[in-house]
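Recap from last week: sequence in, structure out.
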Amino acid sequence: MTVNLAVVGLGAFGIKHLDALAQIQDVKIQYVGHSRQPIADEVAQKYGAKAGFVDYSELLSQPDLDGVILATPTQMHLSQTLQALEAGKHVQVEIPMADNLAGVRQIVDLQKKTGLVAMAGHTRRFNPSHQYLHAQIQAGKLAIQQMD
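Predicted structure tokens:
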């Protein structure tokens, strides 16, 4: 079964998602979204997507779209995640899911209501430098002094 996805937000993180998705056999990069149409079109062509969009609502209305990955600015995460869920699309949103706890609770409540997947991206845990530091802390060789 192929999963048809869109990546919205085509900065550094959006491109990282596209590069990773392009390596997964059962994923089709169906659409991309960005605030500027020329960039959306260029990236869509590069990754073999059907189209690039500047209108997020129009992107979500595509019947052959299963889910979206949001790599957009933080202040957009809450509204875009809720909109995706309301449109019947699964969603993965870069961290933070929202810029306050009340917003995260809204996402969780709507996810429970829809039964769709709604998740935050915590991909740094697989970064070799993060894995190294984690191993050092677990081994007692380093200690956390402060965490921001």
